[in-house]
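Weekly sync, protein design subgroup
Attendees: M.S., D.O., the rotation student, P.L. (late)

Item 1: inverse folding check
M.S. brought a backbone from last month's batch and wanted to see whether the design step gives back something sensible before we order anything. D.O. pointed out we never logged the input encoding, so this time it goes straight into the notes. Structure tokens as presented (289 positions):
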């Protein structure tokens, strides 16, 4: 990576203006889109205590902790995702991209008063039968110490000509040792939008969600992950761990969902399912480092 591939921003970009720009951005990728080999960096990031409080309240984290909730930095990293997707060198339109998975690695808790430096790049990409997949890799540093990492994999749906793999038989839902119900309201989605800055219309109102092809408004995928982490915080061993989730199906609001979980060795496996406990909304695992 040469210096010409690195762009240092003075501040984190604001999400709402980028979402407006994304709504009118149209791009036609070729059969093999070329992704930019670029790194975005922002230094001297200080936590906004009001935003952190809104985030913790929206997701269910305790507000008495001297450290950032483990998924909070994702909402800052998402700003760099959007900034990169809106660059002229990025081959795909940002609107319509589906969040497939997210992996967060917390090497140690980040204190609320620490100054953070964020770096973001495109880690990999591939062509599949469903379209074009790509992964953003973000790193957070305190000084020169790597304290936190985030990988978010997205899909831009398209006809690629790649043959689809044959579908296997549907497996029976896994049985977990523990279950708890979580009620999600429309206001939960709006609170998360305010806390995160992600005002995508599919998360704000049934009418705007229907215009964009959904039967009702849906909760943010990263809210679902954060809510699981908040609910499981008492069961997570240690303070350094990796949490990976695969997003499976949207959660239409309002909804009652079931959090199923159990320890498997040193890991903690979990799923967020619909109220009947059959359809998975996300599947995840937490592994201590």
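Designed sequence read out in the meeting:
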């Amino acid at each position: 990576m040469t210096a010409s591939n690195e762009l240092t921003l003075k501040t984190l970009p604001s999400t709402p203006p980028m979402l407006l720009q994304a709504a009118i951005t149209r791009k036609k990728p070729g059969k093999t889109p070329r992704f930019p080999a670029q790194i975005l960096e922002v230094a001297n990031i200080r936590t906004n205590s009001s935003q952190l409080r809104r985030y913790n309240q929206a997701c269910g984290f305790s507000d008495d902790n001297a450290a950032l909730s483990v998924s909070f930095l994702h909402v800052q990293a998402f700003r760099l995702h959007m900034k990169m997707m809106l660059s002229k060198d990025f081959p795909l339109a940002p609107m319509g991209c589906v969040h497939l998975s997210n992996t967060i690695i917390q090497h140690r808790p980040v204190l609320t008063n620490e100054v953070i430096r964020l770096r973001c790049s495109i880690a990999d990409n591939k062509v599949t039968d469903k379209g074009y997949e790509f992964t953003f890799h973000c790193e957070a540093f305190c000084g020169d110490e790597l304290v936190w990492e985030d990988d978010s994999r997205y899909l831009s749906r398209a006809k690629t000509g790649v043959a689809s793999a044959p579908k296997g038989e549907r497996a029976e839902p896994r049985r977990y040792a523990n279950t708890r119900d979580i009620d999600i309201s429309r206001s939960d989605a709006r609170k998360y939008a305010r806390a995160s800055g992600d005002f995508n219309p599919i998360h704000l109102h049934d009418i705007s969600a229907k215009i964009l092809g959904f039967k009702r408004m849906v909760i943010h995928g990263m809210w679902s992950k954060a809510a699981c982490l908040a609910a499981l915080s008492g069961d997570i061993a240690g303070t350094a761990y990796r949490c990976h989730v695969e997003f499976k199906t949207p959660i239409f609001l309002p909804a009652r969902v079931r959090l199923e979980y159990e320890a498997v060795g040193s890991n903690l496996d979990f799923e967020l399912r619909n109220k009947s406990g059959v359809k998975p909304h996300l599947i995840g695992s937490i592994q201590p480092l």
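Discussion: Residues 72-85 form the longest helix (14 residues). The chain has a mean pLDDT of 92.
Action: P.L. to compare against the previous round before Friday.
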